[in-house]
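Data card: per-record layout.
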Amino acid sequence: MHKIRSKRLVTYIIILLSAVGTIAAQVRIHGKITDAQGEPIEFATVRIGGTAIGVTSGLEGEYTLSCAKADTITVYYSCIGYREEKRKLIDPEADVTLNVRLQLDTELLQQVEVTELKKQTGSVATIDASQLKRSPDVSGGSVESLLTTLAGVTGSNELSSQYSVRGGSYDENSVYINGVEIYRPQLVSSGQQEGLSIINPDLVGAIGFSTGGYPAEYGDKMSSVLDITYRTPEAFEGSLSASLMGGSLAIGQGSKRFSQLHGIRYKSNSSLLGSTDTKGEYDPRYFDYQTSMTYRFSDRLSASLLGNIAINSYLFTPVNRTTTFGTSSDAKQFTVYFDGHEKDRFETYFGALSLDYRLNRGTALQLLASGYLTNELVAYDISGEYWLDQAGTSDVGGELGVGRYREHARNRLKASVMALALKGSTALNSRHTLTYGLSVQSEKIMDRSREWELRDSAGYSLPSMPDEVRVIYNLDSRHDLTSTRVAAFVQDAWKFSTPAGFVTVNAGVRLSHWSFNKETLVSPRASVGFIPERAPGWALRFATGLYYQTPFYKEYRMPVTDADGNQTIVLNEEIKSQRSIHFIAGTDYTFRALNRPFKLSGEVYYKAMSDLVPYEIDNLKLVYSGRNESSGYATGVDFKLFGQFVPGSDSWVSFSLMKTSETLHGIKVPRPTDRGYSFGLYFTDYFPKIPRLKFSLRGIFMQGLPSTAPRSSRDVDYFRMPPYKRVDAGVQYALLPALKEGETRSGIGRWLKSVWVGADVFNLLDISNVASYYWVTDVNDIQYAVPNYLTRRQFNIRLNIEF
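The structure for this 803-residue chain is written out next.
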């Protein structure tokens, strides 16, 4: 009996020593998996080559696994939509840290099987930046043109990057690039003047977009947030694009210490503008240079620079114009012979320097200094003689109005915005993150504006005076202003699992103060998302918050008219921030059909607004009253079906119904950006028998905007413009397709990633859309709204080279 016990004891000791030896001979591998922008990638697969050992990364991209020690261990990292990476460990020790960055897979999508689309539980949605290069639009693949095909978003016209979100004005949208808020020129009044968007699509790496209910970290705007992150190259890369309207060049380079990305764009759409009703000599020139650079001093400290120089010039000498409008039974023709010219120039200089310091594994701090300068000049002297006739008649009696007019403007605005901000984030644990920040901003504005218009209709000057001649409109503005804004925010985001499902919560508060009107604002915001355990195909979300629109210069310029009809601009020091309370409920449902993944999204919203500053729209020019004198609401529902209607190619269809209203001087009227319905389509297709040939279609159909006569308002009278309808189509052929894994090229082709040539048809259906109206008064003192039509059908050829 004693011998048996002794044998068992020896056996136990041997087993224990073997186990200890096995543990001692194991290697523990851990780290974090991120994307090109440093954001964590969840559910990425990590496996040991030649074994069945593998794990998936957590919500923060972190992973841990162990394997037996060997001379060489190969670790593979993979995730749907990213290129697989592998790391070889030579004679590894007991504990190894491996942080890996995965790059987006740029191969043809039909070679990747997507099993499910990502669900949205927060208020900020992610948009695939690779879609920009496929979109056939006159702006050359801008982010904003892609946004206007989404639910709840409507554009102004094809010549502009301005957009409206759920009935909000073009000024109610926050735009950030690499965490820095961007400002737009103030004097732009038409899409012809605007030129290039400040966002360079060749540099974009990630796009976040929210149509409402966004977190406290974003600034004081009432409608939406567009958050752009530029790429951080890890090796040499570049792209060259050229078309009949201009071209762009982007070059990037990256190493362990230093990365840089540069982009140059040039555009001249004179041929496009030549398709409008107003004929003449167009000479628009738009130039833009941007750079994003990062230097890593150590694993904890890095410095980044973001820079932009934009020079947009618009020269125009009109010759004549003929516009036919009305109905088939009551058609009218408007003819003008012009003299004079317009010369506009918009210069923007922008720069931001940031220092990023990782205090420890859970806390990161950022010190950010930025500066924005704009120098804007709008100058025109244009006179004309016009005839308004019944179309098809040449008799004298067919004339409805004959007159002359002269328009004059010398408007100059200089503005500078200097800001200093401190931001930070602390991970309280793997699923709980606290974010906070403090900023100080100084604004200086110099305004010198002088406008007047003289009109002679049917032989008498308007307004008609018995003993003198007056101009029908004049305005004078001379101001120098300096003000300071201070803002702070704190927000808490956490994720946790319950027996009922997975929950995400984001709650925070934003505080701000403006020295101009001595106003202090408190803006609480919260959102919650839920994925049911028993129905993982569904994702539910709800967001609410109090949002303010802190006025910028245009919004508190108040026109005052004296006894002689002269208008002078004064600054309203009693102006208050416009306020909006958001209530948003949404859901995503992911499913498979035709053996491909799809996602159906829907949101219902209500926004209660007060202290509104009424405005009217003339093309892109927003003319504010400068007073808080109305209140209103916006409510609606948005739908979007997203998926691979064609295998390997993302497409979507969106539809929105909306109603906005405000009480203006005691009368309920629609807001100026009220589009009761909108439909957007973005479709891409790869031809099965010709895989190198790709087809893209972009369509927009939306209700026309309310419009008023000049210097009037909707409470007096308004009418709706015709619906905006536009379809752009394009085809692209790969002269040199992207390399598949393991493939190589010889000769000059080894330096190129891909070469595409394409052809676009803008406004495929040749629809005459209305941008604004020119108003004419006839002999009976009746006003006619003569439409200013947008661009007609145009063809374009483009070339894209990636290297």
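Known properties of this structure: The helical segments are 2-24, 143-147, 191-194, 270-273. Confidence is low (pLDDT under 50) at residues 10-24, 106-115.

See the next section for split statistics.
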